[in-house]
């Protein structure tokens, strides 16, 4: 199914994100993760794409398994900054042949000292260039990334939202946010999006935290701020594995309840390939998700 159809049918779309196993592991380990997530009946499962294209084959393969073996909609992430048109064409043809209909069109994080292979012609500077190319030449439904607290490279949120408008104009039909821990940041972002008349539905990216190190690494990579309320939780429970996990799930549950009450278009759960965390979260939300849809 094309996911834009799903967004027009459902009030709140719920999806999970997983990542391919390490290149040194067998792809088979991903079955355990999908086996555990499938009974939760997500609207779709997305599969990340290794930085600079390091997991091309496995991302395509896992998206195909989700679609064809589990009969669940899949969304294959695809980054472009390091790719030639020919490389992108190969991935797109492979995805189309495997019946994967949805792509999250991304630029990818450009390493600071990136020079790339000499002589390699890169065609896509921004995700909007990739979006335009795919829409002009293929028949996929495209999603894009957005950043409630601003993309780290962009000087300010207003500029970032202007650039987001370009991406939507180029053909992205829905958006998934970078993770955030403060719903107020999302509401402020949404106001700016509405002001620019960006109509694409936006799913909130939520990550239940399970330990302090993980959250600190993520905050370093993204612009996500940790609100004082969450810092107090981390300070109090960081040394007890079970307690910090339970607190993280409770925090994410509270965030999602409030977002659903404010008519969010959907929730995208960063599972970190830990299905038990997704399971606990969905159990907390079951009646609410039923009530809104
Ligand atoms: P773009 O939309 O191209 O934006 C990048 C920067 O360029 C922004 O600062 C933007 O404001 C600016 N910009 C855009 N257009 C213009 C323009 N015309 N002129 C000037 N400036 C412009 N990374 C991976 O490697 N693999 C993944 O699987 C992956 N999945 C992700 C999933 C989600 C939901 C999110 C939020 C991020 C994901 N990322 C992933 C990270 C993402 O690749 C990085 O955040 C990357 O730095 C930006 O990608 P983008 O597609 O948002 O880029």
Q: Would you kindly provide a written description of the structure presented here, covering whatever features stand out?
A:
The chain is of the alpha/beta class and 293 residues long. The chain contains 11 helices and 8 strands. An 8-stranded parallel beta barrel has the order 1-2-3-4-5-6-7-8, surrounded by 5 helices. Helix 9 runs antiparallel to helix 10 (241-261). The protein is globular. The chain starts with a helix and ends with a helix. 44% of the residues are buried. Bound molecules: flavin-adenine dinucleotide. Flavin-adenine dinucleotide (FAD) is lined by residues 48-49, 51, 77, 79, 104, 106-109, 126-128, 145, 151, 153-154, 160, 163, 166-167, 176, 178, 205.
Strand order of the largest sheet: 1-2-3-4-5-6-7-8
Terminal-residue CA separation: 18 Å
Number of helices: 11
Question: Using DSSP, what is the number of strands?
Answer: 8
Brief sketch in words of this structure:
This protein has 293 residues and is an alpha/beta fold. 48% of the residues lie in helices and 14% in strands.
Looking at this protein, list some descriptive labels:
single chain, 293 residues, alpha/beta, TIM Barrel, eight-stranded parallel beta barrel, binds flavin-adenine dinucleotide
Q: Helix and strand layout, with pairings?
A:
Layout: H1 3-9, E1 13-18, H2 29-37, E2 44-47, H3 56-69, E3 73-79, H4 85-97, E4 102-106, H5 127-137, E5 141-146, H6 157-170, E6 174-177, H7 183-195, E7 202-206, H8 212-221, H9 228-237, H10 241-261, E8 266-270, H11 275-292
Parallel strand pairs: 1-2, 1-8, 2-3, 3-4, 4-5, 5-6, 6-7, 7-8
Helix pairs in contact: 2-11, 5-6, 9-10, 10-11
Bound molecules: flavin-adenine dinucleotide.
Residues 48-49, 51, 77, 79, 104, 106-109, 126-128, 145, 151, 153-154, 160, 163, 166-167, 176, 178, 205 line the site of flavin-adenine dinucleotide.
């Amino acid at each position: 199914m094309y996911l834009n159809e799903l967004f027009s049918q459902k009030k709140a779309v719920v999806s999970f994100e997983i990542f391919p196993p390490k290149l040194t592991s067998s792809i088979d380990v991903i079955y355990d993760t999908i086996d555990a997530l499938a009974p939760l009946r997500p609207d779709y499962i997305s599969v990340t794409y290794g930085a600079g294209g390091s997991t091309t084959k496995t991302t395509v393969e896992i998206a195909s398994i989700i679609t064809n073996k589990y009969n669940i909609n899949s969304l294959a992430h695809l980054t472009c900054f390091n790719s030639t048109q020919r490389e992108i064409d190969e991935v797109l043809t492979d995805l189309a042949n495997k019946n994967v209909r949805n792509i999250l069109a991304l630029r990818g994080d450009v390493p600071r000292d990136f020079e790339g292979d000499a002589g390699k012609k890169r065609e896509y500077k921004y995700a909007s260039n990739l979006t335009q190319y795919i829409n002009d030449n293929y028949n996929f439904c495209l999603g894009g990334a957005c950043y409630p607290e601003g993309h780290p490279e962009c000087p300010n949120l207003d500029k970032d939202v202007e650039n987001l408008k370009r991406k939507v104009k180029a053909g992205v039909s829905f958006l998934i946010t970078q993770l955030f821990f403060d719903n107020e940041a999302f509401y402020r972002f949404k106001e700016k999006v509405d002001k620019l008349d960006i109509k694409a539905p936006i799913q909130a990216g939520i990550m239940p935290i399970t330990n302090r190190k993980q959250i600190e690494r993520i905050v370093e990579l993204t612009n996500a701020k940790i609100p004082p309320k969450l810092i107090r939780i981390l300070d109090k429970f960081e040394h007890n594995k079970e307690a910090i996990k339970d607190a993280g799930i409770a925090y994410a549950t509270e965030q999602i309840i409030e977002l659903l009450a404010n008519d969010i278009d959907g929730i995208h759960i960063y599972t970190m390939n830990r299905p038990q965390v997704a399971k606990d979260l969905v159990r907390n939300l079951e009646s609410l998700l039923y009530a809104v849809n």
